[in-house]
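As promised in the previous annual report, we have extended the structural survey to additional targets. Below is the entry for Tripartite motif containing 13.
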Amino acid sequence: MEQLEEELTCPICCCLFEDPRVLLCSHSFCKKCLEGLLEGNRGLAFRTPLKCPTCRKETPHNGANSMQINYSLRGIVDKYSKIRQFPKMSVCKQHCGQPLNIFCATDLKLICGFCATTDEHRGHRFSSLEDAFKREKESFEELQRGVESWQSADILSCLETLQAGKKKALQSVSRDAEKVTDYFDKLISTIECKKNEILSDLETLKLVVMQAYDPDITRLSAALEEQERALSMAESFKSITDPLCFLQQMQEFRAKFRVLRETPLPSCKDMDIGPLVRNFDVKKWDSLRLKEVDKISVPHEKVSYKSGCARVTAPKLMALFLLLSVALGLSLSTHILTASAQLRSEPLLSAVTSQLSQGAVFVHGWKAFVEAPD
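The corresponding structure token record, generated without further manual editing, is:
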């Protein structure tokens, strides 16, 4: 089509020929274009032959109207202009380049000539596009009336109901999500507080250990330094031959030795705190009931959602957590009090041991409550 349009284009105005006139050299041009050329030559001698813009051959003339009309070219241009106004014809996807110019009345679809000869359409009824257009136009009107009479009101009502149900369900899910987030935030906060409390108690135990060991360690370290100084003194005067000087040094050396000998040594038996600290094993906490948090029921993806259908049993979990808190507190307190007892705090240990016994009863009660069915 592009090559055809190029052949139907005037070389002067580069548009489709309009009232084409042919020169003696057989080249054609638009009448208006030739008149423009003649108008430009008006100053020259009248009736000067027109030179062809393409080949420069001369053509005598008596004005543009006197030039011969190219009827064949004009007819081709008119037909081409009409064809160009039509929409581009669709082609068959199965047979490349073949136009869809046949309508299969059996399958109710457009096909090409090759499609009509295949086994797929054997025995089918075919019709021209014009006849099919008339029949399908009537069918279209019936379909349109059917669409217009469709139960759109019922569908809209059902759609609104579904949308409202979806909105309500999503709001319910969001509320439950907020409840779960709030609950576990509080649970984590409480566990964090218990962790800080235990670490604080361990810091207290650290101070107890330091107060128990540091005085004797300082005293013994000072004694060792005094021993080093005494030995250094002995090395310095053992080769002295002057009696007076030697006796003076010997007197001072004997005094230092007397101080070392009278330095009291601590009893390691009275400060056996290290093993008690090592026996503090966090693995024992695994037996606490908080590990059952991973057994909390969650909404199943195949079950229609309903707010609270897979609820978190907050009272029971809180009871489990209180049991954890009390147990951890009692466990750590026992270690601290034991260490304090080793540091000669028997009255305090006796008083707190009584409270721990009462706490054990409290824990037993909570455990019974937690294990009870909902």
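The chain has three domains: 2-85, 89-136, 170-371. The CA atoms of residues 99 and 261 lie 122 Å apart. These points will be discussed at the next consortium meeting with the crystallography subgroup.
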